[in-house]
Amino acid sequence: MLSNPSQLLVRNAHLFEQGQWLLANAEDAQVFSELDGDIDGFHQNWQIYSQLKTQNNHEFAVALASEKRYDGIVLYMPKAKEHAAMLLANLACHLKPGGCLMLVGENNSGVKSAPKLLADYGHKAVKLDAARHCSLFNMVLSAEVKPFNLDQWAKEFEVNIAEHNLRIYSLPGIFSHKSLDDGTKLLLENLKPIPTAPVLDFACGAGIIGVYLAKKNPAIQLTMSDVSAIAVHCAGRTAEINGVTADVLASDGLKDITRKFAAIYTNPPFHTGTHTDYSITEQFLRDANAHLGVNGSLTLVANAFLDYPPIMEKHLAAPLVMAHTTRFKLYHCQK
Q1: How would you write 168-235 as a 3-class SS string?
Q2: d(C-alpha 299, C-alpha 291), whole Å
Q3: Phi, psi of 211 (to 5 degrees)
Q4: Are 138 and 116 spatial neighbours (Cβ–Cβ below 8 Å)?
Q5: 255-264 tens-digit pLDDT
Q6: Can you tell me whether residue 249 is helix, strand or coil?
Q7: Boundaries of each Methyltransferase small domain copy (predicted)?
Q8: What is the three-class DSSP state of 139?
């Protein structure tokens, strides 16, 4: 199904009929079949990329690495403006001189800030079209583009939990960029003994939960997974900085994970971009049983208003509330 920004691009399909184009972080896979032309894809979302990876010229990465230069690049506006700025700095390096650098997004996504975000790359951003509560902006590249250095966008911060001091590597676009969120803090401060066995940090973000588990019990076999290329990169760097060995992988929920675990730990998302989306966690809860070994356990922290316990009880076991605040509840259930 075409997202609203993709519908706006299809409405302007004539723009892509000439030259070589790149769509960055498309919100759906269908748009590539709706547009005619020489169009590649750059993706930071594994769920979208996995639908297209058998086709030519689709890349999943934290930053675009292709040596190809494009006549035009369209970036779908991400939730965080700093994430958009980082992506534009990366993507502009892959434009031909005089190429088109475009931003498309829903009006409530922050796309109206496009003229400011694009200001470093040319003289004036122009709104090409608006429909479906979305806008499409274009800047003709005329400014000198600086070489892109991913680490210049990174932030390292310290997390102190109990007797453990961790260094966390974070990039724009990651959940709770630059700080430890209160939900994860509640989980880490109230852990049951960690089994000396394979464990999974699901929807790992920057890898805080997984790396803390490994510091608390160095004998675990740690896997960390996330749908985001940024998260996979950050979790890997966080593990490296803290001297932790981990298998860090991209996965659409649990679809791309084959092994079973003695325990799964998670602070799962309930947003996709700017939209509330409970389906990711609900599907995870339906699938978790098949990825837990005998007597396996699930430890999950979530906003207190989210009604996950009935789903957990139906597909796994009745959860216990291990700890709570006014905003969060920490659940634990065991097969």
Answers
A1: EEECCCCCCCCCCCHHHHHHHHCCCCCCCCEEEEECCCCCHHHHHHHHHCCCCEEEEEECEHHHHHHH
A2: 14
A3: -65, -35
A4: no
A5: 999 999 999 9
A6: strand
A7: 166-331
A8: strand
CA distance 263 to 175: 22
CB burial of 235-251 (b: ≥16 within 10 Å; e: otherwise) equals bbbbbeebebebbbbbb
Domain that holds residue 116: 4-150
Q: Does position 276 have pLDDT exceeding 90, yes or no? A: no
Question: Are 239 and 281 part of one and the same domain?
Answer: yes
> What's the pLDDT score for residue 275?
55
Region class of 295: left (phi > 0), else alpha (psi between -120 and 50), else beta: left
Please state, as a whole number, how many other Cβ atoms lie within 10 Å of the Cβ of residue 194. 18
3-class SS of residue 274: coil
Alpha helices in the chain (DSSP H): 4-11, 31-34, 46-52, 81-92, 114-117, 182-189, 208-216, 229-241, 279-287, 309-315
Q: Which residues pair with 168 in a beta bridge?
A: 157
CA 108/CA 285 separation, integer angstroms: 30
CA separation for the pair 67, 130 (Å, rounded): 32
Which pair of structure tokens corresponds to residue 124? 């004036």
Q: Which two tokens stand for residue 189?
A: 């401060």
Helix (H) or strand (E) holding 90: helix 81-92
Question: Residue 25: helix, strand or coil by DSSP?
Answer: coil
Smallest CA-to-CA distance from 145 within 62, 70, 41, 43 is with 70
138-179: pLDDT as tens digits: 999 999 999 999 999 999 999 998 889 999 999 999 987 778
Considering only CA atoms, which of 74, 30, 19, 80 is closest in space to residue 55? 30
Q: Are residues 111 and 226 in the same domain?
A: no
- Count of C-beta atoms within a 10 Å radius of residue 28: 16
> HSE-up of 120 (CA within 13 Å, CB side)?
12
Q: With both helix axes pointing from N to C terminus, report the angle between 182-189 and 208-216 in degrees, rounded to the nearest 10.
A: 20
- Residue 186: CB partners within 8 Å, gap ≥ 6? 301, 323, 324, 325, 328, 330
Domain end point (choices 150, 182, 212): 150
240 CB-near residues (< 8 Å, 6+ apart): none
